[in-house]
């Protein structure tokens, strides 16, 4: 996508076109928010396939392997699709949670709350149709949508949302450094030194926000990439492990199985069965 921001409505014709297309698993170089007003969405993401019935919102972070199949329900479908570059509204809480939590889709149970999201989408579309769109207005409307979604999530999952109160610049910096270095065989001390702090304090921050240690977050990021490579390449288990900083195939396999509940080979077999359905 070359544009900074794009919004459109997906109707029955577009849904049928997607269903009839090859529609392979893919990645985006942009962020995507799908707001389902009518119909259903069959969504393969986070290495799981589930079907959601409107009303719902589903967020797909850039770089995530996924596949969406819009489905008509009672011969009707109406989705708002919003696509934007990450720099359009940087450091959103959704980006953080999309990378480390398997909760990209949220059902809505209060029609009044959901209807306001639709109004905001209509306002953004109207602004984008102007001869010269004011991106500051669009950015504000999009930020409001995310705020409202987070408000609804807090109501549905109050305990989990306590983590958001503890977000910090340090943690954001840690994630940025991790993204550049997770393939290297570096441990907690490496990241702590990069942030000019002790390993203990970095662990405290990570535990506060994600309830995971630094080591666990590093392994989580490695696991996500391992799954991506198992899904999208023909590289051997040893090659993938080595690429992610594991010198021994057996050790990589043990770590993967401990976190994923199956060996890399078993995961590759199961995921290939899933996407061929």
Outline the structure in words:
Helix content is 52%, strand content 17%. The chain has 2 domains: 5-162, Jelly Rolls (Sandwich); 167-276, Homeodomain-like (Arc Repressor Mutant, subunit A, Orthogonal Bundle). The chain is globular. It has 277 residues and is an alpha+beta fold. α7 (188-194) packs across α8 (199-210), α9 (214-232) crosses α11 (249-260) and α9 crosses α12. It has 12 helices and 8 strands.
List keywords for this structure.
Arc Repressor Mutant, subunit A; globular; 52% helix; alpha+beta; 277 residues; Jelly Rolls; 3-stranded antiparallel sheet; 2 domains; 12 helices
Helix percent reads 40-55%
CATH T-level fold name of the largest domain: Jelly Rolls
Number of domains: 2
What is the CA–CA distance across the termini?
29 Å
Structural class determined from secondary elements: alpha+beta
Overall geometry comes to globular
Short description:
This protein is α+β, with helices and mostly antiparallel strands.
């Amino acid at each position: 996508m070359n544009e900074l921001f794009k919004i459109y409505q997906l109707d029955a014709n577009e849904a049928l076109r997607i269903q009839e297309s090859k529609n392979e698993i893919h990645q985006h170089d942009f962020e995507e928010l799908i707001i389902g007003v009518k119909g259903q969405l069959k969504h393969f993401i986070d290495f799981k396939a589930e079907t959601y019935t409107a009303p719902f919102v589903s967020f797909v972070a850039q770089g995530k392997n996924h596949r969406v199949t819009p489905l008509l329900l009672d011969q009707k479908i109406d989705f708002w699709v919003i696509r934007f570059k990450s720099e359009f509204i940087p450091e959103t809480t959704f980006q953080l949670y999309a990378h480390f939590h398997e909760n990209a889709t949220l059902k809505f149970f209060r029609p009044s709350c959901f209807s306001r999201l639709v109004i905001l989408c209509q306002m953004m579309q109207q602004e984008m149709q102007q001869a010269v769109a004011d991106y500051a207005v669009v950015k504000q409307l999009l930020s409001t949508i995310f705020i409202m979604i987070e408000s609804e999530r807090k109501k549905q999952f109050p305990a989990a949302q306590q983590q958001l109160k503890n977000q910090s610049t340090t943690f954001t910096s840690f994630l940025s450094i991790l993204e550049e270095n997770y393939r290297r065989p570096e441990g907690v001390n490496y990241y702590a030194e990069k942030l000019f702090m002790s390993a203990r304090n970095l662990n405290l921050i990570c535990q506060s926000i994600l309830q995971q240690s630094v080591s666990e977050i590093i392994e989580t990021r490695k696991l996500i990439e391992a799954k991506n490579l198992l899904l999208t390449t023909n590289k051997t288990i040893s090659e993938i492990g080595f690429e992610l900083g594991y010198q021994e195939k057996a050790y990589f396999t043990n770590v993967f199985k401990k976190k994923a509940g199956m060996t890399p080979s078993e995961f590759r077999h199961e995921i290939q069965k899933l996407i061929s359905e």
